[in-house]
């Protein structure tokens, strides 16, 4: 956290207690004169930004600017910086306000140049600061904010197999850091696999025999948001496997104990296509620790 920049320092030091529930924000006496009973701006006094005891907390003018013109003729001029839907302040200027204090927070260090930055999202596209309830930081309500732009994920997350996001047990931010990331697709960790391991530790290995696409990227086979196929699989086995492997033309006779020989009863192309198909035999699809099981059989 970068503490108060010079520009904000003077305003913040003043701690006149006026309205706003005794919050430090009341230091902006001039704003309070007219906005004291303002039902939309008032609740900020109950948020972290309005915490009296925190000398790092912003004042009205730290975010909105000194706004001399607005004070003199409030119906004619907006404050220097305004954030609403019809904001007249350029996005980058709005974001600078927040980043002045937040660009050293561990979560925000990768913001510059991130996907959302380059698509001109404002911090306040997602965050509301006056309202005590910042939807996007509420596990249950968060996805609604994202879905206003990400319709495809809305559809996926409601499919039969899905991570429990709609149930409120997880949020998009369980896997993504929307403020930027060194990993792909705004992953919370440095890669897709590292992000998945954070909850599915048993898939990490190391295994005696690993399966290349698993170590590479879980989303080779899984769609993390949701699928019609079981287990979040993009397509079910055997079709999934066949997108990379040619199905057994034959099984080596010496392995008859494990698998029926080609052409024998029980082993033909249709038996491979049934049920869980390939994973009936190749049960250790994520990696095997049995030295003799290089074929991920057990
Ligand atoms: C003389 C009274 C007065 C003072 C002083 C005043 N305001 Fe306002 N402010 C208003 C009024 C009235 C509106 C609504 C204007 C409108 O709806 O067109 C308003 C609107 C606003 C808005 C919404 C702008 C928008 O449309 O997006 C913000 C933000 C704001 N004021 C912040 C401040 C800040 C910060 C200060 C102190 C620096 C301040 N005001 C001082 C009267 C005042
Ligand atoms: C942390 C930065 C920040 C601080 C501090 C801040 N504001 Fe705001 N203000 C915003 C943002 C962002 C919005 C847009 C709506 C929102 O996010 O809640 C806004 C919106 C407003 C509005 C318009 C509300 C509406 O109807 O859209 C008014 C009026 C306002 N602020 C006044 C104030 C006053 C008065 C203070 C001091 C008590 C203050 N603001 C402190 C960032 C801030
Ligand atoms: C003058 C410094 C300052 C400015 C400007 C500022 N913040 Fe903050 N913000 C803080 C402090 C201090 C906290 C309390 C966090 C802490 O304890 O580490 C905070 C907390 C937050 C939190 C977490 C709130 C919580 O309840 O935990 C969010 C979200 C946030 N700020 C967003 C913003 C956004 C968006 C803007 C720009 C509109 C902004 N901030 C502008 C200083 C600032
Ligand atoms: C795409 C939506 C989105 C945008 C844009 C966004 N945020 Fe956030 N922000 C979130 C979400 C989601 C969380 C909650 C993350 C979590 O729970 O791990 C969050 C959390 C935070 C927090 C609290 C972090 C903490 O440690 O609890 C701060 C501070 C913050 N954001 C600041 C910012 C600033 C500054 C910007 C602009 C540079 C910004 N955000 C832009 C969605 C967004
Ligand atoms: C205002 C619209 C908007 C909102 C709200 C929004 N995003 Fe985005 N997001 C975008 C745009 C634009 C892109 C660029 C790719 C695209 O066009 O889909 C993007 C890309 C992404 C990407 C892919 C990143 C990459 O590098 O390819 C992820 C992941 C993402 N957003 C997650 C989220 C999450 C999680 C939330 C909610 C906390 C959220 N977004 C909210 C507009 C938005
Ligand atoms: C279990 C982890 C996880 C959760 C939870 C999650 N995502 Fe993702 N998301 C990923 C992974 C991994 C990728 C990259 C692989 C892919 O696109 O399938 C991704 C990709 C994305 C993309 C980029 C898609 C593209 O085609 O470029 C967007 C947008 C996105 N996620 C939004 C969201 C939203 C919105 C939520 C919450 C509803 C969410 N994600 C929840 C793991 C997750
Ligand atoms: C924040 C923790 C968390 C992260 C990160 C996470 N998961 Fe999960 N995963 C869960 C939970 C919780 C379940 C549901 C378990 C249940 O319902 O019993 C689950 C279930 C699954 C399932 C089984 C789904 C089913 O239908 O039974 C698969 C497959 C899966 N996750 C893959 C992934 C992949 C791939 C990633 C990385 C992109 C990932 N997970 C990241 C928590 C997580
Ligand atoms: C080569 C395709 C493939 C890749 C890549 C893959 N999986 Fe799977 N995964 C499967 C299949 C097939 C199943 C269903 C297994 C079954 O039906 O017995 C499954 C099931 C799961 C399950 C639920 C059942 C269980 O075993 O716990 C989780 C969780 C899971 N995978 C996590 C992951 C994670 C994490 C990664 C990345 C490290 C990953 N998977 C990569 C094919 C894959
Ligand atoms: C994204 C591509 C991809 C998918 C999907 C995939 N695999 Fe693989 N698989 C590979 C690669 C690459 C290797 C290692 C290279 C090799 O030996 O052919 C491998 C190796 C194997 C091996 C060990 C082969 C050996 O000679 O050591 C088995 C068995 C196997 N896969 C079974 C499956 C099954 C069953 C599925 C479906 C659940 C599946 N694979 C899905 C790419 C894939
Ligand atoms: C009835 C059990 C069984 C089923 C079903 C099965 N396999 Fe196998 N698979 C084996 C056995 C046993 C071996 C070892 C054969 C050997 O030593 O050559 C093997 C070997 C492999 C190999 C490595 C050798 C090679 O031929 O490249 C791959 C890849 C493979 N299987 C993929 C699949 C795929 C894909 C499916 C589903 C379409 C599947 N298997 C279904 C038992 C099975």
Description:
The protein has helices spanning 6-13, 29-35, 60-64, 68-72, 91-102, 115-118, 123-126, 142-147, 151-157, 192-197, 212-216, 239-242, 269-273, 278-281; strands at 161-162, 226-227. It is mainly alpha-helical and 298 residues long. Among the domains are: 6-103, no CATH class; 205-281, no CATH class. It has a two-stranded antiparallel sheet. The protein is elongated, with a radius of gyration of 28 Å. The protein binds heme C (10 copies). The site of one heme C (HEC) has 18 residues, from helix 8 and helix 9.
Quick summary:
By secondary structure, the chain is an all-alpha fold.
Q: Please, how many helices?
A: 14
Sum up the overall morphology in one term. elongated
Low-confidence stretches: 1-24, 251-268
Strand % is under 5%
Specify the helix fraction band.
25-40%
Kindly list the characteristics that best describe this protein.
binds heme C; mainly alpha
Annotate the secondary structure layout.
Elements (H helix, E strand, L loop, with lengths): L5 H8 L15 H7 L24 H5 L3 H5 L18 H12 L12 H4 L4 H4 L15 H6 L3 H7 L3 E2 L29 H6 L14 H5 L9 E2 L11 H4 L26 H5 L4 H4 L17
Antiparallel strand pairs: 1-2
The protein binds heme C (10 copies).
The site of one heme C has 22 residues, from helix 3, helix 5 and helix 7.
